[in-house]
């Protein structure tokens, strides 16, 4: 395969390399080129990585500090890192000295999200995204008018497959009520913080209710996936429309009654609302039913005429069976640990890592392959699809 290419800083950055190898840089401060922009990544005073860049077309060679979005990776003080270009729009950064699962990060420099934020902010922008091994099941967005029974369907799904599904925790700017716990009932936050995060594109949907902001953040959905579960979003039709317009790759399901009259009957039979509240819900339902059945809005429309039949259809839509819960749970655990890296080389979409011997199962390995050929997602969420596996020595 040849010898790995490793450089510190700017030395020989523009040198030509043979043998099919891509440039791999190593150092406490690395410099790497994407297109006509040179980026320097290094450890800042707060132990997170800083970024500065300059255009190679600029005769003055002026360095600028771009607006950095996403959560900055933290490095072990004094440690180095590896960096290599992936595709034409991002840089893979491997943190050395990190034995945790958060050793892989992507600095996005020209992805659709970054381009969008450049237009919004009117300045140079880069964005960090944490790299994650494997994939997560697509989130499921379930919407429908009040009283249609979507809550009952979700409860049945959670009860039958307890290890497979989870809810994202919403954000709100209102004060917590008695017995409410931050991070469990809601993520309670300051209005200025939430408004800034909304502006930075970190929310899938949000709304103002009685003077307070409520919303679903991308991070909240990603945290469910990090726990090895598929995220269920139970939101209204307006919220679903906002999520549909976002970058989230999800399954959108609309639950509707067999008729408007049947929905009215259900609402009244609950006996939990006043007549005024029932009338308000019915007025909202008319608009939601029209919007929910619009072509191309939802992927699937479920008619909840018979609960058991509707539930069976729901399970088929999200590819579930009786053994799905155990299969999903075991698959989510099959992820090798991140090794300490001594040398790195890259050929195409495969990155070769050499490290001290690391025990995986009943064998010890010191050579690994990180395949970045099937990445999905990205800032302001996770970049998923990394495949790390040991190279078996003969």
Provide key terms for this protein:
single chain; 394 residues; alpha/beta; Rossmann fold; 2 domains; 14-stranded mixed β-sheet; five-stranded parallel β-sheet; elongated; disordered N terminus
Largest sheet: 14 strands, mixed
Overall 3D shape: elongated
Query: Any low-confidence stretches, pLDDT <50, length ≥5?
Result: 1-19, 322-334
Terminal residue distance: 16 Å
The counted number of beta strands is 23
- Count up the domains: 2
User: What's the CATH class label of the largest domain?
Assistant: Alpha Beta
Q: What structural category characterises the helix and strand content?
A: alpha/beta
Question: What report would you give on this structure?
Answer:
This protein has helices at 112-121, 150-160, 191-199, 218-226, 237-244, 260-270, 275-292, 307-317, 324-331; strands at 7-9, 25-34, 37-43, 49-55, 67-69, 81-86, 90-95, 104-108, 125-133, 140-143, 165-167, 171-172, 187-188, 203-209, 212-217, 230-234, 251-256, 300-303, 343-347, 350-360, 363-371, 376-377, 383-390. It has 394 residues and is an alpha/beta fold. The protein folds into two domains: 7-132 and 336-390, no CATH class; 140-331, Rossmann fold. Strands 1, 2, 3, 4, 5, 6, 7, 8, 9, 19, 20, 21, 22 and 23 form a 14-stranded mixed β-sheet that branches. A hairpin with a 2-residue loop joins β20 and β21 (363-371).
